[in-house]
Amino acid sequence: MSRTQFHTAAGGTTAAEAADAALSASGVASGMTVLVGGFGMAGMPVALVDALIRHGADELTVVSNNAGNGDTGLAALLAAGRVRKVICSFPRQSDSWVFDGLYRAGRLELEVVPQGTLAERMRAAGAGIGGFFCPTGAGTLLAEGKETRVIDGREHVLEMPLRGDVALIGAHRADRAGNLVYRKTARNFGPVMATAAATTVVQVGGVVEVGALDPEAVVTPAIYVDHVVDLRSTSGEEHAA
Amino acid sequence: MSRTQFHTAAGGTTAAEAADAALSASGVASGMTVLVGGFGMAGMPVALVDALIRHGADELTVVSNNAGNGDTGLAALLAAGRVRKVICSFPRQSDSWVFDGLYRAGRLELEVVPQGTLAERMRAAGAGIGGFFCPTGAGTLLAEGKETRVIDGREHVLEMPLRGDVALIGAHRADRAGNLVYRKTARNFGPVMATAAATTVVQVGGVVEVGALDPEAVVTPAIYVDHVVDLRSTSGEEHAA
Amino acid sequence: MSTVEHTDRGPLSREEMAAVVARDIPDGSYVNLGIGQPTTVAAHLRPGSGVVLHTENGMLGMGPVVTGDDADPDLTNAGKQPVSELPGASYFHHADSFAMMRGGHLDVCVLGAYQVSASGDLANWHTGAPDAIPAVGGAMDLATGAKDVLVMMTLFAKDGSPKLVPACTYPLTGVGCVSRVYTEVALFDVSGDDVVVLETWGESVAELVDRLQLRIARATRPRGPGRLR
Amino acid sequence: MSTVEHTDRGPLSREEMAAVVARDIPDGSYVNLGIGQPTTVAAHLRPGSGVVLHTENGMLGMGPVVTGDDADPDLTNAGKQPVSELPGASYFHHADSFAMMRGGHLDVCVLGAYQVSASGDLANWHTGAPDAIPAVGGAMDLATGAKDVLVMMTLFAKDGSPKLVPACTYPLTGVGCVSRVYTEVALFDVSGDDVVVLETWGESVAELVDRLQLRIARATRPRGPGRLR
User: Fold this and answer.
1) Is the Cβ–Cβ distance between A161 and B165 less than 8 Å?
2) Which residues from chain A sit within 8 angstroms of residue D145, using beta carbons?
3) Which of B10, C129, D91, D117 has the maximal Cβ count within 10 Å?
4) Residue ranges of domains in chain D, CATH in brackets
5) Closest CA to B47 of B14, B87, B89
6) Cβ contacts of C75 on chain B, cutoff 8 Å
C-alpha cells in the first residue's frame, strides 16, 4: 500500500523542515542503498540530499549518475563521511574534487556502470525483471567477472537489477494524488528511480490539484510516489526543483 | 535513417488508398512478422489491417494481443488464409470463431505468451536487450522447454526478444515531425510495437503541425515512426483511430 | 479461537462474496480486479477508502463500467467493457503497465480460479482439455506480480469436487502465489504452511473439514476488516 | 582509384574536421554527438538536412548551446551545457533514452577516442593509468548502439605514436563498433576486413602508410557526401 504523503513548506514550516520530515518518514537508515536522481544539476534533488546530510544516516550506498560536484549536495554528503560506496557512470568531473580525494585515499568504494546499463538495471528492479542480457560493455573491463552469452552472434553481458531502499528525486509538479510531471531534460533518472526503490521521496516546485495534470501526460504515476516535498514557498514563489 | 512519410486521405485520395500506399511503402512481404496493435478494438489499426488484406502478403506471423474478433480486421486476415502463425496472449474470445476454426483444423500455428511477457519481449527487441529473466510463467506449461534460473530464491524464465518486420498501430494524433500521442487505454501496445519493428506504420485520427504537441507529452518519438496514414477525411471529420 | 463461524445463516451470495473481498482490501491499496466475478468487488469498495484501481491495459484510476452514450471505445477495462476515468488517473503503455504489476507495485489483485492448492498454487487459465484453446491473457503476470493475490471462487465444482485441493490437477497459472481464497462457504488463508480458515458461512469448520478432505487449521489471531496480513 | 588525396593543402583544422563529418551524415539522420569535439559537428550540419540530434539525457530535437539569459538549468546536453529545444522535440527518461540507443534506432553517433583499432575496436573511456579514476558515462552504450559510430580524433598522440592501431592498448569501450575514423590527415573506413582510406589532407596515401605502419587499402568505389555505407 502506498498512499502519497505531502510535506509542505508553508504555515511556518520551512522547506528544509518539510524535507527533514519526508526523510524521517521515508525510513532511510544507515547501511541503506539510496538512489539519487539528476544529471548534473538538472533534476538533482538538492533539498532532499541536504536533508539526508542532516538526517545523519551513514554507511550508505549511493546510486547516481555522477559522484558530486563542488562542495554541496552529493559532494557534501561524501565529505561528511556518510557514504561507503558509490555506484555511478561518471564520477570524474572537473569539480568532483571531494569524490576524487576520498576515492584516492581508499575511503570510498566505486562501481562504475555504463550510463544506459545503470538506467536499465534500475528499470529491471522496478519492473520485476530478474536479470537481462545486454551488449553494452561486452569485451571490456566492465564485463570482467560477469556472465556472458553470445546471442544472435553478438556477445551480451548478464546484468542484474539494481534496487534502492529509498529514492530521492526531483520533479516539476505533483498533483494531490501523487502523480508527477518533469520538466525538459530534468526528467532523466527520476522516473526510473521512482520505480526501483522501496520508498520514493520527491521534491517538487509545486503541488497542483487533482485534475490539473493531463492523465495522458503523467510521467510517474502516483503508485511510485511515497513522499512529496513541496518547495513552493509560502509567498507563492517557487524554488527550483 | 528514418524520416517519417505521410499518407493522407485528401485531394481525391481515399483513406483506403492512403493506407494501401503506406503498406506498399512499408515493404511488408510474405513470410514477415507483423506486429498488430490494439487491445480488443481500442487502438486496433483497422484501416491498416484492411490494407494488409488487400496487399496480399501471406505466410505471415502475426503478433497481437488477441487473434481476431467477428469477421473483420485480424479475423478477416486469418480467414483470407494469409497467416501461418499467431503469437498472442488471448486468442479465445466469444467472437473468435475464425481463429477457433482454423486452429482446430490445424491450419494455424499458435504461440500463447503471457500478456506482460508479450509486451516485455517486444520492449526488449526495441531496447536492444538480448533476453531477460522473468518470474511470469515459471512452473507452468508456458515455461516448458525454456531455460530457467532461480534468482533471489525465485524461479525465473529466460524470455527472448520478439521483433517485427513491420508494426501496424493506431494512435490519436501525429505531428508533422512524426511524433505520436495516443488516447486513453487505446495506447496499450502501440508505443512498444513501434520500437520493436524495423518499419512502423501508424494510422492516426489527424495530423497536427509541428509544435502543436507538447514535447513533454509525446509518447512515441518520431524516430520510431516511418509511415503515418492520416484518416481525417477531406470534410475535416475524423475516423476513429 | 479467532475463526469466525457464521452458522446462523446460509452461504454467501455472489454479491455478498464481493462485499467480503472489498471489506478486506486495505484503505489506499492499488488493486487490479480480474475479468468476471472479481469485477463486482469494485461496487462494494467503501467510498473514501482511497483504493485505486489498475487495469492492465494501461491505466490507474479506473472508474466504473459505463454504458450508452458515455461509452468511449478508447477507454476500456481488461474485459474490454467501456469504463470511466476518475480524477487523478494516469495512462501508460502495456510494457509499463505490466512492469508495474510484475515489479510488485500493486497491493492486491483479485482473480477467479478453477483450482487453488493448499500451498497457494493457482490454476485459472486452462482446463487442460485436449480440444481447449489455451488463452492466458494477463493471468500469469497478475498472479506473479501482486503483493496479495485474492481468489474468488465457488468452493466446489459442479460435480461436487472441491476446488481447494492438495495439489492442482489443472495446468498452473502460478506457483505458491495465492494469499487468500474467498468462497461462498469459507474464507481461507493459503499464504503460510497450513491452510487456515478465517471465516465460514452456513456451516461450521468441522463440517467444512469433512467435506474438503484437507488439513485445515483454525485461525489463531483475529484479522479484522482492511487487513490481509 | 576512388581515394581522394588532397595533397595541395595542409591537414584539416578542427573546424574543418567537424565540417567533413557533417558533410558525410545522411540527410534525415538521427544523430548523437558525444561530449567535446564531436559537439562542434552540429554547427556544420546543412540547414534543411533534417538531421535530428539526440542527447542521451533524454531528448530528441536538441538545438544549439545557449548562454546567458536563455540558459535553462533543466535543459542541458550530455556535457551539461544549456541547450535549446527545436520544434518537434520530445523528452523521455534515461531508460527510454538508452533503449533508443541500444536498440539500434540512432543512425549515427560521433565520439572522440584515445585509440581505434584496425578492426574497429574503440578505446575512449579510460587511460588504464593506475591512478586514473574510471568514468564511462554513456560511451559504451553509444558505441554499442548506434548504426554507425564515427570517431573524431587526431591521428597521432602527443608523443607521435599513431592512434589508429593494429590493436588497442588502452582499455576498450566497445569491440568492432567503429565505422569510420575522421582525423586531421585522413578519413578511414574501419567497418570491413581492411582499413580503407577514403580521403587524405596534406599528404598522400603512400606517405600516410609509411607513418602508420598499418596495412591500409585504397577505396575501390567513390563514397560521396551524405553516404556512410
Assistant:
1) no
2) 116, 136
3) D91
4) 4-218 (3.40.1080.10)
5) B14
6) 42, 184-186
Closest C-alpha to D188, from D216, D154, D169, D158: D216
What order do you get walking across the sheet with B180-181 strand by strand?
A: B180-181, B173-175, B207-208
What are the angstrom distances between the C-alpha of C126 and each of A103, A148, B18? 57, 36, 42
Q: What is the CATH number of the domain that holds B71?
A: 3.40.1080.10
pLDDT tens digit sequence for C43-56 = 999 989 999 999 99
Task: Write out residues in chain D with pLDDT < 50, as ranges.
Answer: none
Query: Residue B235, exposed/middle/buried by CB under 10 A (0-12, 13-18, 19+)?
Result: exposed
| Tens digit of each residue's pLDDT (9 = 90 or more) over D187-219 | 999 999 999 999 999 999 999 999 998 999 999
Q: Are A107 and C78 in contact (CB under 8 A)?
A: no
Residue B216 lies in a domain: yes
Residue B2 pLDDT > 60: no
> With an 8 Å Cβ cutoff, are C141 and B136 in contact?
yes
> In terms of DSSP bridges, do strands D30-33 and D52-55 run parallel, antiparallel, or are they unpaired?
parallel
Q: Summarize pLDDT for D82-110 with one digit per residue, the tens.
A: 999 999 999 999 999 999 999 999 999 99
User: What CA–CA distance (Å, rounded) separates C99 from C149?
Assistant: 17
- Compute the distance between CA of residue C195 and CA of residue C218 in angstroms, rounded to an integer: 8
Cell of D135: 568514468
Q: What is the average per-residue pLDDT within B160-178? A: 98
A127 → closest Cβ in C27, C89, C102: C102
pTM of this structure: 0.97
At D55, is the secondary structure helix, strand, or coil?
strand
Which chains reach chain A with 3 or more Cβ–Cβ distances below 8 angstroms? B, C, D
DSSP letter at B231 equals -
CB A190 within 8 A of CB A43: yes
The residue among B1, B122, B209 with the most chain D CBs within 10 A of its CB, best to mutate, is B1
Handedness of CA C166, C171, C177, C180 (dihedral sign): negative
**Is C199 among the residues known to form the active site?**
no
**Rounded percentage of chain A residues whose pLDDT exceeds 70:** 95
Q: Give residue B233's pLDDT.
A: 58
Nearest-CA distance D228 → chain A (Å): 22
Distance from CA of C77 to the nearest CA of B (A): 8
- The whole-number pLDDT of residue A236 equals 46
In a domain, A238, yes or no: no
HEC readout, B179-221? CEECCHHHCCCHHHHHHHEEEEEEEECCEECCCCCCCCCCCEC
Q: Is position B238 within any domain?
A: no
Q: Are A196 and A63 in contact (CB under 8 A)?
A: no
Residue C84 has pLDDT above 90, yes or no: yes
- Number of residues assigned to chain B: 241
Q: Which of D30, D11, D195, D197 is nearest to D107 (CA)?
A: D30
Choosing among C56, C141, C177, which should be mutated to test the B contact, i.e. which has the most B CBs within 10 A? Answer: C141
Q: Do C and D share at least 3 CB pairs under 8 Å?
A: no
Residue D1: predicted pLDDT:
54
pLDDT at site D58: 98
Residues of B in contact with D60 (CB under 8 A): 221-223
Provide Rg for chain D, Cα atoms: 17
Enter the C-alpha cell of residue D93.
527518461
Residue A241 covered by a domain: no
At A233 the pLDDT is 58
C-alpha cell at C195: 491452510
Residue B146's domain spans which residues? 5-230
What's the gap in Å between the CA of A185 and the closest CA on chain D? 5
Give the number of domains in chain B: 1
Of all residues in chain C, the one with the smallest CA distance to B113 is C136
Q: What would the mean pLDDT of C80-86 be, rounded to a whole number?
A: 96
